[in-house]
Amino acid sequence: MTDKTQYKKTLEQFLEYLSDIIQLYRSAVPILKEELDSIVRDDIDSLNESLKCQQALFLKTKSFDEQTGFFLSALGIKAENLTEMARQLPAKDGLRFFNLLGEFEPVMAEVNYYRDKCRMLLQNKLYTIGKALSKPADQKDNITYNQNASEINAALFPKSFETKI
Q1: Domain ranges of the chain
Q2: Model confidence over 23-58: pLDDT tens digits?
Q3: Residues 56, 66: Cα–Cα separation, whole Å
Q4: d(CA 31, CA 92)
Q5: 147-162: average pLDDT
Q6: From the CB of residue 85, how many other CB atoms can be counted at a distance below 10 Å?
Q7: pLDDT per residue over 97-117, tens digit each?
Q8: Phi then psi for 151, rounded to 5 degrees?
Q9: What is the C-alpha to C-alpha distance for residues 19 and 110, in angstroms, rounded to an integer?
Q10: The pTM is what?
Q11: Cβ neighbours, 10 Å, residue 86
Q12: How far apart are CA 125 and CA 10, in angstroms?
């Protein structure tokens, strides 16, 4: 195989890999929408399933930097990011990468939107739960004391005789 043929093959594999990554993130959007709905409905089981799906997505995309580095090395390109890499390609191939990157941006914006919504809603719910749990601890039982400041059984007096200090 000639160097040019190998280069084209590697470039096509890289484009295919990036397309697959975009598809994974596209498939994450309905999962994130379901997560948001689960949080609103307080559906723990559905939320758990959503989180399992997100973990699977994370495992599939975990090696993105490593894979990208492999492809850049195989193509003989030194770049900090994919935009920089696409600028170093021949015009026709560079346009294909820019088109692919153009698809990636709105997908990631939608993913980030739903992630942020879910995070904010969860934080809000956890804060509300924390406040509800801390209220009984803050409110102590009414204790009745006699003139010597020793505790008396409060059940002896009706509630109408209570005074809060």
Answers
A1: 3-141
A2: 999 999 999 999 999 999 989 899 899 888 889 888
A3: 18
A4: 35
A5: 57
A6: 20
A7: 899 989 999 999 999 999 999
A8: -70, 140
A9: 17
A10: 0.71
A11: 19
A12: 48
Amino acid at 152: I
Q: What is the amino acid identity at position 118?
A: C
Q: Which one-letter amino acid corresponds to residue 164?
A: K
Q: How far apart are CA 14 and CA 145, in angstroms?
A: 79
Copy the structure tokens of residue 26: 């596209």
Pick the CATH number of 3-141 from 2.40.50, 1.20.120, 1.20.58, 1.10.10: 1.20.58
Phi, psi (rounded to 5 degrees) for 148: -90, 10
How far is the C-alpha of 158 from the C-alpha of 69, rounded, in Å? Answer: 77
Q: Is the CB of residue 94 less than 8 Å from the CB of residue 87?
A: yes
What residue ranges in the chain does DSSP mark as E strands?
144-145, 151-152
